[in-house]
Hints:
The protein is of the alpha/beta class. It has one domain: P-loop containing nucleotide triphosphate hydrolases (Rossmann fold, 3-Layer(aba) Sandwich), CATH 3.40.50.300. Helix content is 60%, strand content 13%. The chain contains 9 helices and 5 strands; from the N terminus they run E-H-E-H-H-H-E-H-E-H-H-H-E-H. A 5-stranded parallel beta sheet has the order 2-3-1-4-5, with helices on both faces. Helix 1 (14-25) crosses helix 9 (176-191), helix 2 crosses helix 3 and helix 4 runs parallel beside helix 5 (92-103). The structure holds adenosine monophosphate (AMP). Adenosine monophosphate (AMP) binds next to helix 2 and helix 3. Residues 10, 32-33, 36, 53-54, 57-60, 65, 87-88, 90, 94, 137, 146 line the site of adenosine monophosphate (AMP).
Amino acid sequence: MDNIVIFGAPGSGKGTYSAELVKHFGFGHISTGDVLRGEIQACTELGKIAKGYIEQGQLIPDELMIDILTKVYDEKRALGKGVIFDGFPRTLAQAEALKSMLESRGESMTIALNLIVDDAELIRRLLHRAEVEGRADDNEDTIRKRFEVYHSKTKPLIDWFRNEGVLEEFTFKGSCEGMVKELIDKLESLQS
Ligand code: AMP
């Protein structure tokens, strides 16, 4: 079964491209950000914990996140269509946990799609999204913190994915449609 990681800085389009890949391939979609926002909306205990971290642009602690991910993964895996991980892993501990969680189920990471977008375009998208979606963490202060967290904790995963032999990099060249096509072509080439 395909276990695909989609990876990149805040605003790189992980959610948008995941939706396109889900539409095309029928994958189960796990967006840890969406899971957490759902918990906040439902006012659960987890939601209360997550809210503080998200609004500060910080990461939810690894142990909690790994627990959540494992539960959601087992639900999506049962559908048997492959899974796309959007926003997880975000730390080396999460990456190692994902690897062992998959191995313990006889699975492995198929590919990690790294979306590369230049900083000016990332900021433009996030500020635009702030206007359109009104996400609590899309204000300038929080965006800055999310970038710091990305650079210090998440970006080192690029080398980790490379060492695992699963890294594929995709650079945004001005067209979302072009990027979608490149991603689909890559995944189709793996399936043939
Ligand atoms: P996203 O929608 O992926 O941009 O995630 C929004 C926020 O949710 C992040 O800034 C974090 O605060 C939190 N979050 C989402 N995924 C994770 C994760 N894998 N580990 C820790 N925190 C996460």
